[in-house]
């Protein structure tokens, strides 16, 4: 690891990787990640990635996204995401991402909750892994990109509202000041702050806490999405997601008496509310999801990973309903970013789940997350390449003695973020 790079990207999920791949080979890039490079939430995305299915689909896709977001979405961001989708998918296909195809060789599409028609590409039930692993493999082949694993960002270097690098620490609390022209925060959401979440526990809003420390503008920290269906378990740790596309393909939800109680294809927030209400009414810790209407062939071919996990937990979804419960899943708020992923601090960008460009509004439409991450990661790269020349950050002498124990530092950031979430919740009551 060097002392200076053209760009530092924090995070090795879909957004960070795609941003790096869209920067020119002449740029020396450092990617930092707290754990292994393949331990990002992008790898966990099951359902798929949306795309515009021709001009006749535009108004419906736009309306589906807006309605799911309670019409609080940034319309310009929604339009940009949808209009960019075909180009993104074309690029992924060029990179040999393997999406499922129909018997005639054409791309196959599935449908998920709150979508008016099938417009979601997928790879079994591990679409996020297929896309992100492909991008990671290509990044590893690039001589200009260095990945540094088990290295934690604990601060950014800045002066006069200009970013000029990051402060990182390794597992032994050694401190590394690293300078750069640009810094991209693509460090994920806030799942690690919650007891029940589908996210990796180490992804806990570090970037938000650091942004707060430097008065970088944040937005809608109280916009937290609960996924309606995760596999119920008494075991501690991350909750296993039962993909939206399972219900999109025809799975049904039952109460304790085996009766349907709601529309399974509602937006996630409304369906989660309906499930919570039914659990309270029944006095249960879960409801039942029945995959049997899909048929054994669809279960085994489209959802092999979900099937295997259910079997490991003692349930056979081919023969019986499985217990499901809502859990924290996604974060629609974050570091405020414009349509080029620029933050309120110069030379600091944010993309992916750590950012808030308004595209999702108050509630994200299923399978828009991977698309949004890729669209706005490329926008960040484009701005770094084609935008105005970066302003030079001339920081004061760095006091590295303040960085002694990364766990203590991160706990402080996490507490700040949780307090701000609660403050925003109360302000909006």
Distance between the termini: 47 Å
**Oligomeric status of the shown chains?**
single chain
**Global morphology:** globular
Number of domains: 2
Strand pairing plus helix content: what structural class?
A: alpha/beta
- What's the CATH H-level superfamily name of the largest domain? FAD/NAD(P)-binding domain
Can you describe this structure in just a few lines?
The protein is of the alpha/beta class and 429 residues long. The protein folds into 2 domains: 4-223 and 332-427, FAD/NAD(P)-binding domain, CATH 3.50.50.60; 228-328, Flavocytochrome C3, Chain A, domain 1 (Alpha-Beta Complex).
Descriptors for this entry?
single chain, 429 residues, alpha/beta, FAD/NAD(P)-binding domain, Flavocytochrome C3, Chain A, domain 1, 2 domains, globular
Describe the SSE topology.
Blueprint: E1 4-10, H1 14-21, E2 29-32, E3 49-50, H2 58-68, H3 75-94, E4 120-121, H4 127-140, E5 145-148, E6 151-159, E7 162-170, E8 175-185, H5 206-213, E9 218-219, E10 224-231, H6 244-248, E11 252-254, H7 268-282, E12 287-290, H8 296-302, H9 304-312, E13 322-331, E14 334-336, E15 348-350, E16 355-356, H10 369-386, H11 406-427
Parallel strand pairs: 1-2, 1-8, 2-5, 8-15, 14-16
Antiparallel strand pairs: 3-4, 6-7, 7-8, 9-14, 10-13, 11-12, 12-13
Helix pairs in contact: 1-4, 1-10, 2-3, 3-10, 5-11
